[in-house]
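Bug #77: duplicate submission created two jobs. Keeping one. Sequence:
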Amino acid sequence: MLRGSFSAPKVLHLLRCSPSVSHPALPNFDRLLRLAVERITNSSVTDTQWLQTSVPITDGGLGVRRVSSLALPAFLASAAGTASLQAEILAYCDVPEDPYWKEYLKLWSASGNDIPEPLPLKQYS
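Kept job's structure:
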């Protein structure tokens, strides 16, 4: 419960709904998150230890997700999940293609991740 109250789930909705991958507030949020972990544990956290906090609890970490690493996959998953609905709603409207979609897909591919074809309509955990 504590992890969920001060971690990324609080801003995950914003990450899904807005193209915020390179927003300057993300590192600030991560910095505040790190300070919270340090205060709660009453210890100083090294950079290596901070990376280990994002490891899932089942694998021995604290499960604290950094928002800077969640921004890209959260937005892409949301956009992919709603793509067919968007196409249906906007079928008769003259709107340009989302510029963030292609840019973020390129970023995702450049980071060594595969893009499934066709894109799944549902996320699996």
